[in-house]
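tool_call predict_complex ligand=L-homoserine
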Amino acid sequence: MPELPVGLLGCGTVGLGVARIILEKAELIRSRVGVDIRLAGVADINADAVRDLGLAPGVFTTDAVSIAEDPNIPVVIELIGGKTVARDLILRALSLGKSVVTANKALIASHHAEIAETAEKGNGELYYEASVGGCMPVIKTLREALAGNRVESAFGILNGTCNYILTRIAEDKLSYEQALAEAQQQGFAEADPFLDVSGMDTAHKLAIVVALSHGSWVELSDIYVEGISRLTPMDIEFAADFGYRIKLLAITKNRGNRIEARVHPTMVPFDNLLASVNGAMNAVKIVGDATGEMVLYGQGAGRMPTASAVVSDLCDIARNRACGIKNRLPIFSFRPGTAKPMDLLPMSEVETSYYMRFAAQDRPGVLSKIAGALGKQNISISSVHQKGRKTEGPVPIVLLTHRAREADVMAALDEIANIDVIAERPVLIRIEEEDR
Ligand code: HSE
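tool_result ok
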């Protein structure tokens, strides 16, 4: 049976999971793939990390470069993360003609062009299934299963930490801080959880989904990104009163020659499948013009689910080699230079419906002033609720709108901010009702 020596760079949470699968399921993998995938090199800065793996002598090193450059190791798995050391190692390995597997969504989202160019020049392969949605085959689905589709839209819950926090607040009334601490303890938050709660981790994944869906890359800095840290339990409860769950969604839509790409807390109706994706689970709803709606659901983070995606890439590379082929699939789903370039639709032109919460003095005429400002911008109200009544201090006035243009909503809110009885800038949450 042919043998494939692989090098593993980074033995943290996911790296250890990958090593375990390769070592403990060697027979299963051999019988599925027809290749003996062998851990020929493992690198980490911390020798203790691999203590329990029982590696053969000489396999472990603290020198990741020596593995990236080893002529006897044709496949390198990068699980170090970040955009500095990981980038150098990936580019080095690719420039030497090796194939690379990575889970590094931040790196791909920011450096896709040089990575793809280096892979093409070296005739190596680049696989990155674990970069989006943990164990869910999002990349395989977009690159392979939907090859005959125009992707109309994709809606993703792509960050387990945020979904865990939102679920624990909505269902168990935990505070934001308690829920985040739990997510960190359970090991699915990034080393710097700001990447999770700010929405940036989701934006990295969305950039990849956009490229594979539409054939165009969007600049990360051009994606509208709003995280979850400003959501309050009050809004999560009010949303539920109106029949919605709040989820941090990555959204992309094909608008003809333009695309939408945005990440923000989104109200999703209870009867939408995404509303019942709870805890650290991830899900992506993709709409293809031939498939219609389809949903992937699974663990988007954590050691073994993410390791499973890395190993599936490794198996693809091994199978290709066994057949004497390489690069059967274009790295980013479209043959380079063939997809029609599409511009990003500015956020100001996005249309959706909205939840607005105003903190207002409970006085006659307040509602008509708010409604007047909205009406002036052609924004139609679908529902209004004044929550509680106090004799002193502001009370929450919550209203939902029909579809409106973001620029018009912002103009109305600017006018409303100047109404003397409005205490503070209102809370705004976008509503996704694509299916209704
Ligand atoms: N920190 C990420 C999450 C995991 O919480 O989903 C991997 O992207």
